[in-house]
Amino acid sequence: MSRALSILQQWQINSTKFLLRSSSFPQGLSVNAGRTKCPTLCFCRQIQTVTYDIVNASYVPTSQTKQQQQKKTTDKAPDLLESVGAFQKLPMVMPSVDILYSALRKAKRVPPTKGIANIAKRERNRGAKQLDALMKELAIPLREYLENFPKRRYLHPYEQSLIELTLGDGNYEEVLRKVDTLRKKVVSVGKEHASVCAKSLTKREALERLNEGLEKLEETFKREGKAVDDLLNIAKTLRAMPVVDLETPTLCLVGAPNVGKSSLVRILSTGKPEVCNYPFTTRGILMGHIAFEFQHFQVTDTPGLLKRCDEDRNNLEKLTLAVLTHLPTAILYVHDLTGECGTSASDQFVIYKEIKERFSDHLWLDVVSKCDLLQESPVVFIAEDGNNGHLEMARYHKMGPSGAIRVSVKSGEGLDELKVKVHGLLVAQMKRIGNMKTTEGCSVWCWSSVVE
């Protein structure tokens, strides 16, 4: 039966005239003539108790154990990353052949334990140690890859979209699962054969068990080592993805295929995308940079969008939508009214209205490209029947969206005006990003104040 205990220590203080003169006793304590009553001072010292749990056959304070458990839980479930750049931190993956032959060379150089005089014991010791060394040399790199390749659910939403649209849905996780399966098989086979070799009775039997174990491990790794090569290709692909700085204003060029987005990226930034006269020349997200008066900005070229619903879009179109959805970008929408891009002006108008409505919260600038060819291109007229949609369509066919800048990369028309407008747009985007950071900081500060 547990009870709270207290230690009471009592000291008697002899009566003195000084004590009687200087001490003020509580009410009810009196001093009679010829007789002195001495007060008794009592001191109480509380016992501090700490509970302990038995962990690994030793006594460890419970509080420390809980802290360690919380730390392990935190390590297993990191928070969602609020910045991009995880792909550039991926480990360098060695080809499966290099891992295998490097492990074999290191394992065969492992000597037996010194001081073993018996030949049979020495050989089985050497065999067991070499098999164990080979198992570790094969399994440790695989474990490091699994630890350093991030889980997709913990990545930034933009990078999650890149993995899905570039590698295919579920392929990233499937390759990591195969690598983990290979690691487990290597560990299982290595331990099994090392144990068998350690039980050999003769030198010859130990050598046979050693060779058998080496062959089995090599066969297992060769048979399923393709998973490591697949992981190597994934690392190369992801590491080559462009890095977007979330705190740097970004200009995203959007439009139908072959409307001249890549040509404008070459004019406006340091980016050098491929420029060809056929649709979907841009087959990924390409980055460039702009420097205006010691200010640095980003420009991204995106694949073209077609007139269709999201379910029917290909992965290139979904990449464009992922950039607009997950990154703080200003939009430079490019229109081609000449009819040479392969997408009619009517279809471009429908695409434009859909994207404009979906991303209405973005800063926006419209550009009509190839204006040097517009005079030669046929103009489509629509009868004015009072329908506002028809009137807007007719106006779009003639001039493009209201307030659009007409430019021509070939003749240079409108490029100076475009650069000035782009600079103003990116400066406004910079202010917007700064305001967002300030608002988030104030929200965090206010919340912490409320909690305190």
From TrEMBL:
Coiled coil region boundaries: 200-227
KW Ribosomal protein (keyword) present: no
Biological processes annotated in GO: ribosomal large subunit biogenesis
UniProt domain FeoB-type G: residue ranges: 250-308
Domain NOG1 N-terminal helical: 87-245
InterPro entries, per the entry: G_FEOB_dom, GTP-bd, NOG1_N, NOG1_Rossman_fold_dom, P-loop_NTPase
UniProt keyword annotations, A-Z: Coiled coil, GTP-binding, Nucleotide-binding
Keyword 4Fe-4S: no
GO terms, molecular function: GTP binding; GTPase activity; RNA binding
Gene3D superfamilies membership: 1.20.120.1190, P-loop containing nucleotide triphosphate hydrolases
GO terms for cellular component: nucleolus
The name this protein goes by in its record: OBG-type G domain-containing protein
Organism: Manihot esculenta
